[in-house]
Amino acid sequence: MRNGPGPGVPRVLRTINDRAALEVLLERGPLSRAQIGRLTGVSKPTASLMLSRLEADGLVVAAGATAGHPGPAGVLYSVNPAAAHVAGLDVTPGLIRAAVADLTGRTTGTYDLTEPELYGDESDQVAAAVEGAARAAGLVPDALHRVVIGAPLAFDPREGRLRYPSHLRGWRSPDLLRRLAARLPMAVACENDVNLVAIAERRLGAARGYEDFFLLWNEEGIGAALMFGGRLHRGRTGGSGEVGLMPVPGTPLVRDPEAAQTGGYQDLAGFQAVPAIARRLGIVEAGEVPGPDPELAAALALLRRAAQHTDGPYRRLLELFATGVATGLAAVAAVLDPEIVVLAGGVFTAGGEPLRCLVEAELSELSACRPPLVLGEVHEHPVLRGALESALATTRDEVFDTSRQA
Question: Edge-to-edge, what's the strand order for the sheet holding 231-232?
């Protein structure tokens, strides 16, 4: 049974104070009672009552003692990592990568489900990946509070189905969301993979502190995410950010975008454009670059080499590719006028700062808005990290709402 509020402390104020304490512990903990009182603006007696209550409810734990100060040592508190666990999934053809994180965001278990088609339909595949990650974290799936699934798709709220997963078999099924909800014992949500990259960059990377930004993802394909007022903009059909087949000068018009695989902005600024530019410039790379996608690996190798040159054909390659990237961004900037543009994905990582500078310079000539460009900073499994951060945000809102436990 939860301890009651202190005398004269309204329940809503107590809930606000509880949430403030938990947030500050997440950001700065471990902290003493006195430190929490100062940071949340409550008195020491109120802080003591609050921490006792939160500790009894299993939301905070003692995490050591203060040292190096005169007088008796004080107890340090932190958010209880075991108060809730979440899972995130990154679904791609031939691989489902899963991870579990505790309430503080620390990853406690990971699992790669290879050849997922061997495990049954899509709901069975997801369940197998979640179970594997939970087992690696020393948990059973029932112990997970929420799972967020990232994939190259979008949720259409008009029809209640997933759209655009052209290269994921079965994910177009109109009853897939229902089957996932029935198959998994926890709350489940599906999110576009690039949207999750934007969440990861806002919470952990280059977009920290920004409420409005545009993220351009460039790796196996081109995609985008839009954040307005700190919230993702998904659009009427869930298809906001599907810029890969956006009409741009110099490429054929795509007449059936949902069915097409090439054309538009993808042809001008996707990784496939890099070897094409190299061939026009007479650059010949010897041998095939090993990897699961040799064409992508070869394009990234060309960009890495080009980024090391300040003149000659490799420099020209980088300049021409930057013009292609900036051409599409100019159309985006003219409509959105974002605070910043985040360039994320393997293509921009390979081109690095030299490519970023060239794209920004080109964009300044093509657009009156001229937003600053920054490189993405979340490089290790950004879709998976974004899935975990998305699941954690919702879970913390629920777990930290102590009015529900009153």
Answer: 231-232, 222-228, 213-218, 340-344, 373-375
